Amino acid sequence: MDTKSKESYLLFRLHDELFAVSVHKVLEIIETGEEHSITNLPKAPESISGVVNFRGNVIPVVNTRLKFDLEDYNEGEKFVVIVLSLNINNQEQIIGAQSDKVVDVIEIVDEEIKPVPDVSQSYNSDYIQGVIHRNGKFIMLLNLEDVMATQEIIELKKLSSEVKENIETETQPS
């Protein structure tokens, strides 16, 4: 009998890097397009792409490439939005995270997870809870609460609420 602790992770690509997040935090994967377009927000922080409608709620979308100091998306470049349920400041926050592509769902055994090497990297390693090496590639396990628990997200939630209120006001009959 196998007593090793396993957890499922959603594996996705950003630029040339592989990242993984616990599937327990993933609500949905949205293919962007006409039905799910991102609405830009004036005065939003640079790493915020805007907001998107998710099941009738306005949620912020983080440009994870910019968040990790990677090259930004080119106009017209395809991506998906991973909708996440996170516990930020003891409150559930629904947030979208842009990703180039969802690759797979994988099982990771706790013993595979290695500490983050202490080297200068192009992204903030504080956001990485560990690294695994599989099939000749490194996969970084994200600590999403740390990635998203920033002042910009708090400000963006406030902006998102204002956008939702404006939409509701505009659609109410006079």
UniProtKB/TrEMBL annotation:
SUPFAM superfamilies in the cross-refs: CheW-like (SSF50341)
InterPro entries: CheW (IPR039315), CheW-like_dom_sf (IPR036061), CheW-lke_dom (IPR002545)
Domain CheW-like: 6-153
GO cellular component: cytosol
Record-linked Pfam families: CheW
GO BP terms in the entry: chemotaxis; signal transduction
PANTHER family registered for this protein in UniProt: CHEMOTAXIS PROTEIN CHEW, CHEMOTAXIS SENSOR HISTIDINE KINASE-RELATED
Protein name from the UniProt record: Chemotaxis protein CheW
Organism: Plebeiibacterium sediminum
